Amino acid sequence: MELSIQVHGSKIKILRKRRALTQTELGSTVMKQEGLKPISLRTIQKIENDDKYRCSMKVVVNLAKVLGVDLKELIPRKIQSPQPSKNSDLIIGPIYKGDTTVHVPAIKENYELYQNGEEENEEDEYVLNEQKIRLDEHMIRVIARECEMLFANLDIIEELRKIKFNVITFDSLMKLVDGSNSIKKNLDRSYNIQDKFRKALYIAEKEARHEGGTDNLWNIMYGDERFHSSWEVFDRDTTLRFFEKLSNAHWYSIDCDIPDDDETLSLMSELMDQIEGSFERGLRKSDELRIKFILLSTIKKLMDLRIGIFFGVREHSSEEWNTHAHRWDCFKSYSIRILIKYQKNKNFIMLSQYIDVDESEFYPPEKLFDRIDSRNFIEQYPEEEAKPKP
Fold it and tell me: Which H helix or E strand runs over 144?
């Protein structure tokens, strides 16, 4: 029978939810990212929900590593600390075999992790480059979490969002923090604001590396259920692709932030006019060329004002009964959702990624999208025999 040890299932469940991971992601996706052996969904479920369930020491070590905690935090205190044996490669400790507690040899590596909770790759320790700090949404949220006791209110977080994605120095960051009315003025002297921010930035970088890099942050923070805008519009090629998708769409929806000034209002309105104008009936080639040129110019101006343009396309299928051919005809239509958003928006995660929280607008499109009657739906005749009409 395999040797096993009892674990804090409720603690593992809390740590998993803090990282917005599903049980499957914890046991499979994250383990694979760390180069560790995956843990089955059934095992994760038993660990979290069955107080008497026991798993192998290796599983506990791997869970501690991916959750970023000391190994001893996942083991109940009632289990005594193991003691080294005379054999330098082994330790003796209380391990469970069935329903009986026995003392058996265990790997020394596990004992050291149990005692110290130290990571194996100390050479990968993050060193803060104080001359080149580029805040992203993940870093800002870690600051809000780790430095919560420093804040009188969260105005400083909104100030940090305004300089998001800019390269700044740590000294410049501290000047902004010191000048903010959000920081408590009656702090205990034991609280060092600079050290707190350094620690928060360190933790943010460590979490980013731990979860597979900044490219996966949107998935970790929000989960797969929210729509990740597929494309960003930022240059000539992406503008042409954007126009091509506009030309093929049957439904569209535009969502934009409220402008801060008249110049931004004018540019946003101009962009929306150009987008809506591309849906007009019977555009001539000269009209298309003019819209493409103006689109590119307007988008570049909006980018200079730290505004991003994103879009995503969805396909929709429907069926209609063809009385003449006595069969069902299948039709496909395409909807496009367009986002015009400030970089300071909290859902603007990274320079090339925005999380759209209104994915529901795609289902069904006819309820919330403007319909383009001048464009025929794409008709596809099924190869199989027509099914009976209900």
Answer: helix 137-146
Tell me what pLDDT residue 340 has: 95
CB atoms within 10 A of CB 84: 14
pLDDT in tens, 18-56: 777 888 888 888 888 788 888 988 888 888 888 778 888
The CA–CA distances, whole Å, from 389 to 199, 238, 320 equal: 66, 44, 10
Write down the pTM of the prediction: 0.60
What mean pLDDT do residues 175-196 have?
82
Alpha-carbon torsion 151, 156, 158, 160, what sign?
negative
Q: Closest by alpha carbon to 222, among 347, 344, 312?
A: 347
Specify the DSSP element, H or E, that contains 340.
Answer: strand 327-342
- Return the axis-axis angle of helices 41-49 and 57-67, rounded to nearest 10°: 90
Angle 178-214-37 (CA atoms, 0-180°, nearest 5)? Answer: 130
Q: Are β-strands 307-322 and 251-256 bridged in parallel, bridged antiparallel, or unpaired?
A: unpaired
Residue 168 in tokens: 């700044």
* Angstrom distance (rounded) from CA 117 to CA 166: 36
Cα 308 versus chain centre, distance? 18
Distance separating alpha carbons of residues 260 and 342, to the nearest angstrom: 10
d(CA 272, CA 253) in angstroms, rounded, equals 11
Strands 370-371 and 251-256, bridge-based pairing:
antiparallel
CB 149 within 8 A of CB 192: no
- Provide φ and ψ at 129, rounded to 5°: -90, 100
